[in-house]
Each structure stands twice: as C-alpha cells, then as structure tokens.
Design a protein that fits this description.
Blueprint (H helix, E strand, L loop, with lengths): L4 H20 L18 H11 L2 H19 L2 H33 L10 H17 L8 H15 L1 H6 L5 H16 L17 H19 L1 H9 L1 H16 L13 H29 L6 H28 L6 H24 L3 H6 L10
C-alpha cells in the first residue's frame, strides 16, 4: 500500500497526543479510580486531558476507516481478513494476555510505600492479582479497546459492504449535523458528559455507535474526492468552532455531580451538545489541516510511523511503570509529567529499534525490516 504523507502526520499527531494523555492522567485534580496511580494534581492537566480526549480516538477511527476502505478497493475479502487477523486480531489477543495484566497489577503495587514493591515475590503476587482482577471483570481490554472495536468495525463493514456500495456519499453539512445528533444521543446513555471508553470485552452500544460513525466517515472521505475538498476548504472554520465549543464544554463539568441543581438537565444538554460538536468539528478540522498543507516525506517520519503501532501497544504500560517509580518522590508534577512522557516514549522507541523493527514482531505489526550493516 502506497504511503500517504498526510495520513502519516495525522497518525503520529494522534499517537503523540494519546501518549500525552496517558502521562497526564495521574497529575489531574480530578480523581481517576480506573487509573493505577494518582498524585497531587493541577487543573492544567484536567483541561489538557479533557480537550485531547474530545478528538484523539475519533481521529484514530476516521484514519482506520479511510485505510480500510483503501484496502477494500485493492484486495479481496480473503486477503483483507488474513491481513487484519495478522495485524489486529493477533496483537489484540496477545496484548490482552500479556500487557493488560501488567497494568492491572500496578493497582496492587501502588499500595506499597516507597519502593518496597521492588521484591520479586511482591511483583509476582501483583501480577497474579492483576489476572484475578481481570477475570473477575470479564477481562478488561485496557488501552487495547481500540483494537477490539476495530475488529468489530471491520466485521460490520465487510458484512454491510453491499449496503455501503449503494449509499450515496452525503454532503459535508449532513455528515456534521448527523454526527452531532448521533454522538449527542449516544452520550445521554453514558456515565459522563464526554464519550466513555469501553472497559471490558462487553461492547457498549453508545460508544460503539459513536466511534463507528467516525470509522464510516473515513470510508466516505476515501471514496469521495469532493468530500475531502470540502473538508480542506473549511478546516479553519472547523478548528475555530471546535476549539471554542471544546473550551465552553469544560464549564458545565463543574455541575456534573450536582443532580439537585435547578437547571441540571439544561446544563447536561448543553455540556453534551458542546462536547459532541467540538469533537466533530475538531476531527474534521484536523483532517483538513493536514491534507491542505504540502507536507514533506522523510526517513524520520516513516520511522516514527512504522513505530507508531508498537508505541500504541506499549506506551501505557511503560507510562504507569514510570508513574509508579516517581510516586514516592517529591517533585513538581510538571517535572514528573515530562519525565514520564519522555521516558516512556524513549523506551518505546529503543525497544522498537532493538526488539521489534527487525524481528518477526515487526513483521506482524507492520513489516519486517532488514538492518543495514555498513562497513
């Protein structure tokens, strides 16, 4: 498959944003019981995580829909199923078995003061506890829920490919309006005024419909040059409106838990519509931005793109390990954030270079590379 430079930039932008979110979570003021490690926080990180969460996974799904439509146009269903099983299904299954219990085990390790958890017996017990916690909750997919939903979306799209073939690509205005309506409706059945990420192997219909819409939009953008041009022409407007709506969507969050407030339902509706609108405008705005500029291909860009899948799989476990190590140390949270973000990302890239890129693992995730030996 030929490389599209704008897609490489979009994918890396989304991937780095996701890494920033993971590094920020324990340093928020808001408590995050589903996160293994918490620390004294700053409101800056709450805003950063909230705003980034408005668009990052939706952007991933739109990219995935675009790429899947490209594959459908060039290969047979049999070839595509084999390819997606190798690239998505196998990494998902291995990740759930190997990586997710590591993250769950840190719930246990974080309870030990200072660095007393650095004992082999304690680490073993924590890992077993992680497995038990997973089995008790129909096994959490953790950060790999994205792959789980992709498998579902691929299946749905293949089953409905004849239906999609008969659908005329809607106009950009209709896509935006329909998208906001669908996302807002779905959000009324969620536990927050932003989109909930699924936690277990049981698919959650509201988030499933919300994310599948973006996957389908990616398909439409691939199939319609006119739709892409419309997005490119209006990306500045989309980004401005999306940014303003995203900032305004923060304000109603203050009343989220205050169910007795007189205007609670009005605030809830406002929060949902604002966050849903922000999501759709920002995703389309970013798509238009990266497709409207002359972006240069380079070896560094290709390398980062090749490593992006490995970074996606392993960044969160590395992040929580760094956060756990820094937990007893008295440091400014900004310094902790920088150390966690850069440290985990550096370990991602080092492990990719020496353990993945030139091995069979690299062949599964992307394609195996041959190391050039000079001299």
């Amino acid at each position: 498959m030929s490389r599209i430079v704008s897609l490489d930039f979009l994918r890396n932008f989304a991937n780095i944003t996701r890494c920033i979110i993971h590094a920020s979570v324990p340093y928020m003021v808001s408590e995050t019981p589903i996160w293994p490690v918490d620390n004294e926080g700053l409101l800056f990180f709450d805003i950063l995580v909230f705003e980034s969460h408005l668009f990052v996974m939706e952007l991933f799904f739109m990219i995935s829909g675009f790429i899947f439509a490209m594959q459908l146009s060039k290969g047979t269903i049999h070839e595509i199923v084999i390819n997606r099983t190798k690239r998505i299904v196998i990494p998902f299954l291995l990740g759930v078995i190997i990586l997710v219990p590591v993250v769950l085990s840190i719930f246990n390790l974080s309870q030990y003061p200072d660095y007393t958890f650095f004992q082999w017996g304690i680490i073993q017990n924590a890992y077993v506890s992680g497995w038990n916690l997973g089995l008790e909750n129909f096994f959490p997919t953790g950060h790999l829920w994205y792959l789980y939903y992709l498998i579902i979306f691929y299946t749905l799209t293949i089953l409905m490919r004849r239906v999609f073939a008969k659908i005329k690509t809607p106009s950009l205005n209709k896509i935006v309006l329909l998208g906001i309506i669908i996302s807002s409706t779905c959000m009324f059945f969620m536990n927050r005024w932003v989109v909930d990420n699924p936690l277990t192997l049981i698919p959650e219909l509201p988030s499933l419909l919300h994310y599948y819409f973006f996957f389908v939009v990616g398909i439409f953008v691939f199939e319609s040059r006119g739709l892409l041009e419309s997005i490119k022409k209006r990306f500045k407007y989309f980004l401005k409106v999306g940014f303003i709506a995203g900032i305004l969507a923060i304000i109603p969050q203050y009343w989220f838990a205050n169910h007795d407030f007189e205007y609670y339902e009005l605030i809830k509706i406002s929060a949902i519509i604002l966050s849903s609108s922000s999501t759709h405008f920002i995703v389309l705005g970013l798509w238009g931005f990266f497709n409207s500029h002359s972006l240069n291909d380079s070896k560094r860009l290709r390398y980062l793109t090749d490593s992006s899948y490995w970074i996606y799989l392993t960044n969160m476990p590395l992040v929580v390990i760094f956060q756990l190590i820094l937990l007893p140390i008295e440091l400014n949270v900004f310094i902790k954030f920088i150390v966690v973000f850069l440290g985990a990302l550096a370990m991602n890239l080092i492990s990719y270079e020496f353990l993945v890129r030139y091995t069979f693992i690299g062949g599964i995730l992307n394609k195996k590379r041959i190391r050039n030996h000079k001299g």
